[in-house]
User: What shape does this take?
Amino acid sequence: MTAIVWYRDDLRISDHSALRAATKSHASVAFIYVLDDKAPGVRPLGGAARWWLARSLRALQASLREREASLVLRKGSAPAVIAALAREVGADAVYWNEIAQAPHRAIADQVAAALSEIGIVTHRFPGELLASPNQIRNKENRGLRVFTPFWRRVQALGDPPKPLPAPKTLKGAANVPSDRLEDWKLEPTRPDWAGGLRDTWQPGEAAAQARLKAFLDGCIAGYSGDRDRPDRDGTSRLSPHLRFGEISPRQVWHAARFAAAEQPHLTADIDKFLSELGWREFCRHLLFDIPDLAKRNLQPHFDGFPWKHDAKALRAWQRGLTGYPIVDAGMRELWHTGVMHNRVRMVVASFLVKHLLIDWRCGEQWFWDTLVDADAGSNPANWQWVAGSGADAAPYFRVFNPILQGEKFDPDGVYVRRWLPELAQLPDKLIHQPWTATPLELASAGIELGKTYPHPIVDHKAGRERALAAYATIRGS
Assistant: This one.
């Protein structure tokens, strides 16, 4: 008999429980990805993530072909599409890995109901997390809202199951009609703004595995400190691969634990790295309990916060024209590469929310559209953390000083010079505050403030005081 494996946010063939179970128990298997971009409650992908999805699907197609199988692409309502495919291929079972998000669970339930009506059984497997949200609950049966006890609870569960190896061959169903990936128009053409993404990334499972190996063989040494330095290659850059399931959290976990066992002196760095994987897990668990995390304040008293509606300032922030080099470098890195260094993400978010008093949802939406790793849990949870409205939130009085952040984490100006070439000739002592340069120093560096690079759109001290005053209005709520 024939089975169907429904691909979702798990675009890989290794450590894929649904794929393993289907291929072990059926003579042939049809593999399908459904582009259901109008499903109720499911947030449509942003532009950068759509680009990544296209490249990732192409890589998965190639991987399946190498194993004598193919990937069927269909667009439409997942329940109707999968039921129709089941009839076409004479399937008696459909397998998939679950997504622990309310709208995706609802779609899966609808698929199961549609298949049950025509006598087809379904098999679901955990897929995207180290631990099920139902395993980490408090006495009131709610998810935990503070990271440290949450992560302790996850670790107390012990190592997750070992990853499943990739099958060498697959018994693919033959001659199943498929959409053309190009017809989905996931990648930009007019204009084609994805050149920087293509220069920066290679989506796909093979690239994810190679990136993990390279990181654990090299950058993991010193990770605890280097991860905060945007001028260094000190992070794993695995986030978009994890976002699309090209690599699983338990594959990352076990590879990291193996590296720690082989090189005990790296244990502290590896523990810090795994805690970052834990933060991703924490954000996904929050999303499990709070499906509208991107829309409402987790702390209701923030509903009365006096946000400013300043389209001009928002546009300057989006374009990397705030006059603060570390902020502008981050925003330009984001536009060009589809990612931003983790330390700089906090700085630019704090600047928007606190210096400019612009609603965190405006920043979250911009990141959603421009990040290749835009994650439905991490993106809003991190923005709410910075704003102070979320779980385990940063103290309201923490207003990052963009000058000091630049001087501390990009002391030689390497990061700023890379993304702001117009400032490249400034000396290190001025690179993070060019407005303090003398006219002669500016002229020597080829800079004319207000023309070749903007004046700061807000004074840091005044912006900080305004932010604290705004936060004071809701402190007693």
Summary: Residues 313 and 356 are 7 Å apart (CA to CA). The radius of gyration is 24 Å. The chain has a mean pLDDT of 96.
